[in-house]
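are you around this afternoon, could really use another pair of eyes. what follows is a protein written twice so to speak, once as letters and once as structure tokens for the fold. i want to understand how the tokens follow from the sequence so walk me through it. anything you notice is useful, everything is just below.
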Amino acid sequence: MSSITKVAEEMQRILKEVAEEKGRTSGFIKREVKINGASFAQTLIFGWMSKPQATYEELAQAATTLGIELTAQALEQRFNQEAATFLKELLDETIKTIIRSDKAAIPILERFNGTYMEDSSTITLPDELKSIWQGCGEVVKKGHHQP
């Protein structure tokens, strides 16, 4: 199985099964009427991937591409503390996901005992998130979450 297939399968698991579970356990979904954890997460992710500054109306249109009939007002009403908790829990679970692949048979690498790769990527956090995630080089305050 290729790495791309593994990534696709894991993303489907996160955006369906994990989103459903986190939607319920976070208190975001109390009863499923028009929207559930998976459809809400997919609407936001795919909507904002398509247009990062999407309005509620544009996000509602993105929902229709997923087969969900939702008004902009209904979507706006879902933006509350429970939604924030749900999305944070979904992000935390996504960050924990490790996707492994088979060893690559590249002849030049066979002469070494091991090949190690380190990721030094950094993402600048908005000020609103600095109390939630440590960020680069800062000390985590006691009682704050670090994924």
